[in-house]
Amino acid sequence: MTLSKLPKMNIVVVGHVDHGKSTLIGRLLADTHSLPQGKLEQVKAECRRHAKPFEYAFLLDALKDEQAQGITIDTARCFFKSKKRQYIIIDAPGHIEFLKNMISGAARAEAALLVIDAGEGIQENSRRHGYLLSMLGIRQVAICVNKMDLVEYRQEAFDKIEKEYRKFLKEIELTPKVFLPIAAREGENIINRPARMKWFQGPSLLEILDSFEKAPSPQDKPFRMPVQGIYKFTESGDTRRIFAGRVESGAVSVGDKVIFLPSNKRSTLKSIEGFNAPARKKISAGYSAGVTLTEQIYINRGDILCKEGEPLPHVSSLMKVKVFWLGKKPMAMGKEYKLKSGTSAVPVRLKEIKRVLDASALTKLNKKIVERNDVAEVVLESSRPVAFDLSSELETTSRFVIVDEYDISGGGIIAEVVKDEQSPVREQISIRDQMWDFSVIDPEQRALRYGHQSKLILLTGSVGMDKKTIAKELEKILFETGIKTYFLPMGNLLRGLDAHVESHRASRREHIHHLGEIAHLFLDAGIIVVATASNLTDEELRELQEVTERDSIVIANVGKNNFHGPIVALDLSEKENPVKNARKIVGFLKEKKVLL
Predict the structure, then answer these.
(1) How many alpha carbons lie under 13 Å from residue 397 in its C-beta half-sphere?
(2) Helix H or strand E segment including 177
């Protein structure tokens, strides 16, 4: 089999700083004859010229900073081959300051080598890295007890490390495939069985690598394409709206029925487009492409395009996650962070700390914050629903990073769905939208004919704040400029459609839901609805967003803003003239191109 036809496998090499990862990789490159011709001799000659001993680690051509400081500071990638396959080796940093880079490297791997110095034994990062491999779902792991030459190849030194580390791995539910005694610098047990460790009857390192099983192809998994961007072209009468992104898993063909989550918008795939490339009939995992749909729908960057009939992602504003915190400042309750997964970025808050672990000792810590290098199981609450998979289902769309201000401060996996208050509403709306009998006139046609998009302008605030006057002035201004608009105060709903509903707290949610459903009908007709409601809570606003579609509602708050997160689009002063407040809303609508 030619080299180009050999299957490929990603392997990450991790371990504590100076435990010999780079030497191990360099030896693999040299002994499998995977180096460019003359490279080994060139590096050896360079060492002689500078009167320094040759090290196999030099073969990696790592960053200049790495050789200057003696530590690997980034994930370096290199390649070698066996008779069975090609390997892409990711050399991940071992130094505690660069755990962030180690996580990004390990996230791309199908299997791992974890290196422990036989002389130094198990160190803090040996445990941390073991936990991270477990957390990232990497189950094919070989533990390489390196530098056996420094302990005179003694079996008892190897056995002691294996016994202690195997016990640790059992606690984090990670079962290694094998413990290997090696001496990378001397070439012992790398390619061939060891000559100086006759007591070890197991395989060589290369034999273990060749025994690792390839991960199932991403093409065999449910279809996922996070939307990177939405593009509209107008030249030469081009009316296409193209949704572009990279396919993370699965495959989709022209004619397939698709759904965007969390938007819950459905359509049929009309075409698959490429940049300066012919159109395709099918795309699968690894492809970057754009797609068009048979119906014109509005969705956001960060939505995940999925195929109907396959297992779909979960949608919730609550999620139980395992997070590794790397930030300089602790992760604290109440503070707002940004969760980035795929192409989505949403504000989140730490809602609950289930437990905090010292990752180097796996001891439970009684903490109200998550500090640097802590591992924690927490519940995060996002400001709007997020579409995601669980780590046990689909790794790519279950991983995330957390940004604190401008720094990536943590990363992890989503381990469990926590149903939020809107879950029942979301399920009902999903059924409604799936069965909806659409008009032959699509929203874009109506917008072009009417000169504006449909929107629900909701004025809210405490009882006593004059919202109705502003709403009526807004309706008047819009109507006089030819806008199709309608004033819908909550009071009219209570005195009309909901007059039969008993007035108690349990029914308030029903009133809110009815307001959303009525607004949804007006929005479907292309109208701008101006509504008012007092004393709304965050949850009630979220319910309205679910019922009417998130992008169709503009929330304007009069007076003090008591809402959490960026849920309010406009803050209006109760002391300002109502006409000026109404004009401020009109200016916002023009700025956002609601008024065409």
Answers:
(1) 31
(2) none
276 or 179, higher pLDDT: 179
Reported residue count of the chain is 596
d(CA 263, CA 315): 10
In this predicted structure, the answer to whether residue 397 has a pLDDT above a threshold of 50 is yes
Q: What are phi and psi of 336, to 5 degrees?
A: -90, 135
Q: Give the pLDDT score at 573.
A: 93
Same domain (yes/no): 240, 264: yes
Model confidence over 96-145: pLDDT tens digits?
444 445 455 455 678 999 999 999 999 888 888 888 788 777 889 999 99
User: Which of these, 567, 531, 562, lies nearest to 459 by C-alpha position?
Assistant: 531
340 with 431: CB under 8 angstroms? no
pTM, entire model? 0.72
468-480 vs 578-591: helix axis angle to the nearest 10? 50
Give the integer Cα–Cα distance in Å for 323 and 369. 12
Spatial CB neighbours of 138, under 8 Å, sequence gap ≥ 6: 12, 106, 109, 110, 111, 112
Closest by CA to 573, choosing from 586, 589, 556, 588, is 556
Mean pLDDT of 44-69: 63
Longest dimension (CA), the chain: 94
**Last-in-domain residue among 391, 420, 449:** 420
Going by pLDDT thresholds of 50, 70 and 90, the confidence category of residue 498 is low
Same domain, 355 and 399: yes
3-state secondary structure of 547: helix
Cβ-based neighbours of 388, under 8 Å, separated by 6 or more: 313, 314, 319, 341, 397, 398, 400, 414
pLDDT at position 75 is 41
The whole-chain average pLDDT of the chain stands at 84
Distance CA 347, CA 319 (A): 13
Asked if 256 and 405 sit in the same domain, the reply is no
User: Quick check: is 428 in a domain?
Assistant: no
In whole angstroms, give the CA distance from residue 280 to residue 288: 12
Confirm if 491 and 588 have CB atoms less than 8 A apart.
no
Burial class of residue 319 (count of CB atoms within 10 Å of its CB; 0-12, 13-18, 19+): buried
Report the alpha-carbon distance of residue 260 to residue 242 in Å, rounded: 14
Question: How far is residue 293's CA from residue 310's CA, in Å, rounded to a whole number?
Answer: 19
240 and 320 Cβ atoms separated by less than 8 Å: no
Instruction: Indicate whether 273 and 326 sit together in one domain.
Output: no
DSSP of 482-542: T--EEEEEHHHHHHTTTTTS--SHHHHHHHHHHHHHHHHHHHHTTPEEEEEEES--HHHHH
Tally of structural domains, the chain: 4
- In the chain, count H helices and then E strands: 14, 29
Q: Which residue has the tokens 């999925």?
A: 306
How open is the CA angle 57-114-62, to the nearest 5 degrees? Answer: 25
Q: Name which of 296, 303, 317 is nearest 426 in CA terms.
A: 317
DSSP 240-300: -EEEEEE--BSEEETT-EEEEETTTEEEEEEEEEETTEEEESEEETT-EEEEEESS-----
Please say which residue of 181, 211, 241 terminates a domain.
Answer: 211
Give the confidence band of 589 by pLDDT, cuts at 50, 70, 90. Answer: very high
Decide if pLDDT at 590 tops 60: yes
Residue 141 is classified by DSSP as E
